[in-house]
Amino acid sequence: MDNVTRATGTVRSRRAAAVIRFGGLIGLALAVFALVLLAFGQNPLRAYADIFRATLGSPYGFSEVLVKMIPLVLTALAVAIPAKIWLINVGGEGQLFIGALFATWGALHFGSLPAWLLLPLVSLLGFLGGGLWALLSGILRAKGWASETISTLLMNYVAILLVSFFVFGPWKDPESANYPQSAPFPDAAVLPSLFESRVHLGALFAIVGLLLFYVVMSRTRWGLEMRALGINQEAARRNGISADRYILLLMFIGGGMAGLAGMGEVSAIHGQLRPSLSPGLGYTGFLISWITMGSPSGIVAAAFLISLITAGGDILQMTHRIPAAAIHILMALVLFVVLARRSGTGGKK
Q1: Are 24 and 118 members of one domain?
Q2: pLDDT, tens only, 120-168
Q3: Both 172 and 304 in a single domain?
Q4: Nearest to 191, CA basis, from 274, 133, 107
Q5: Residue 69's closest CA among 84, 55, 50, 88?
Q6: I need a surface site. Which of 171, 218, 247, 287 has the fewest CB within 10 A?
């Protein structure tokens, strides 16, 4: 009993030390950014107070943080799911754009359907578009023709150009003057908002995706097989586990998650397809998944932190006239903190 008590106390002290160390590093990042604010002639205490008041200090601000979290969680899952068998999906951005493209096609061509039919159709098309786009790289990897890391990265640019082709060409809204965008979505194709805010139904997609990811990986035979493939693919093959099947399946599902993010952005946020659909959401999702090592709880925490900084940065730009570059400095400082914590713990979970 004494040994158990002592071991429990040791674990608690280590956790407390880790929390204190992480808090200290965050404080250091904020202190360094305070110097940046001073260089711009701003009061750091007032700036931080404005960020807190405009985000966590009000229901509207908090809802805006959640809005920014939704696509980040989904694109992080797009990376974390294939990563369980050491597939590196750098194509979340392109898969997001193709998901939005497929969803727009469904909204524009089946706009006469009622919402209870059109919304599931548009959501399915968004998932299908992102999934098929990622599946192309999965096939190349399974056949041994190309690395998924290179192919997914390069296909991002192709996807963005495809969207530009359609919004500059056949889908361009004739009433939008010279601004490239599709016609607005019909009301039946717009994801409904929750709690009288801009938080939309895509939040449920992110929550369900996280829960299924956790349950499948920790509670099912498929999760066990994926962990086996991640540890030693050759040994897993000798035990009858098909690596190629999982490569295709996980790339498709991962791409589908990013496709859902694109569908949510184009349906609930923009209401029409635009080339400026994403400010790098897929790349940020990749970073979130990487620094959290694919942990579902870590994905939520990191997405929340980055969304908080992004929303706070918008406030600083409007109220303090701080340039966007300064906000990127704060983001970089916080990411350095996370990386320093991982390095200090030797990469252990």
Answers
A1: no
A2: 999 999 999 999 999 999 999 999 999 999 999 999 999 999 999 999 9
A3: yes
A4: 107
A5: 55
A6: 218
Question: Quick one: 126 and 242 in the same domain?
Answer: yes
Q: Report DSSP state, residue 348.
A: -
Please give the mean pLDDT across all residues of the chain. 87
How far apart (Å, rounded) are the C-alpha atoms in residues 269 and 14? Answer: 43
* Same-domain status, 100 and 24: no
Count structural domains, the chain.
Answer: 2
**Long-range CB pairs of 24-30, under 8 A, 24+ apart, other chains included:** 25/337, 25/340, 25/341, 26/334, 26/337, 28/337, 29/330, 29/333, 29/334, 29/336, 29/337
| Angstrom distance (rounded) from CA 308 to CA 1 | 44
Q: How far apart are CA 53 and CA 318, in angstroms?
A: 14
Q: Where are the alpha helices (DSSP H) in 112-242?
A: 115-142, 148-168, 202-219, 221-231, 233-238
The letter for the amino acid at 43 is: N
- 3-class SS at 169? coil
> What pLDDT does 4 receive?
44
**Range from 149-163, 169-183, 221-235 carrying the lowest mean pLDDT:** 169-183
* Residue 301, pLDDT above cutoff 80: yes
Domain extent for 123: 48-321
Helix axis angle for 115-142 and 92-109, nearest 10°, is 140
